């Protein structure tokens, strides 16, 4: 594992660059619906705890599954299709994501979450473009300023 590799554990994922006071966190609500960013409030607490697990034999690859919730799901895309502007949904079957330390973020210990890319869709990163607060895949070359990132705050389950 590389020196900057993320450790397996339970995390709240704060999206950046920061929005609002206290930040906005990845929130899973209903299986097969988009994961969104929401304020860290008591009613959403259980929907903002994520189990991050390395994929054996794949450098910087992880699954991100909702932990300690009555809803089952993980970061995924509809029908496991990775395309530009695809929503990141709470999928029944987890997908692999490349999580790497950000080189552009203006804060320390920030990580980018990239799609496990294919030849037709290289350079996709998770972001919250525009209206709706829903996570989507965007092309890296379309990002202006900091590449979208997440701060991973350790949680107990």
Automatic annotation (TrEMBL):
List the InterPro entries: Prot_inh_I48_clitocypin
* Pfam families, per the entry: Inhibitor_I48
Protein origin, superkingdom: Eukaryota
Keywords associated with the record: Protease inhibitor, Thiol protease inhibitor
**Subunit relationships:** Homodimer.
What family is this?
Answer: Belongs to the protease inhibitor I48 family.
What is this protein's function per UniProt? Binds and inhibits cysteine proteinases. Inhibits most strongly papain and cathepsin L, more weakly bromelain and cathepsin B while it is completely ineffective against cathepsin H.
Protein name, UniProt field: Uncharacterized protein
Q: Which organism is it from?
A: Hohenbuehelia grisea
